[in-house]
Amino acid sequence: MVPIGTHDWNKFVTPEELQVMIESPIPGVTTSSKLVLHRGLVLDPSSQGGRLSDCIRWKLSDTDLDVNYISHAV
Question: How many beta carbons lie within 10 A of that of residue 41, not counting itself?
Fold first, then answer.
């Protein structure tokens, strides 16, 4: 658990906003970047043995980008 107030949802960058930032031209730069993929990270409930102290694993999701996600751009 993290303390209340740790996260500010007004500062959350959505995958769509990140794509616009990555693919927007930068003045004075002749190369461009292209977003290749976004993948969500979600907790895998099947990895938990019923106790919080058990190993918690994450899995990749093609559809759940609501909170945790990773992106790849070239």
Answer: 15
Q: Note if the pTM is more than 0.85.
A: no
β-pairing, 58-61 vs 35-43, is antiparallel
Q: Which of 9, 59, 16, 58 is nearest to 38 (CA)?
A: 16
Residue 73 near residue 24 (C-beta atoms within 8 A):
no
Q: How far is CA 9 from CA 32, 44, 50, 67, in A?
A: 29, 24, 30, 10
Residue pLDDT tens, the chain, 74 long? 678 888 888 889 999 999 998 888 888 877 788 888 899 999 877 765 656 556 678 889 999 998 899 999 88
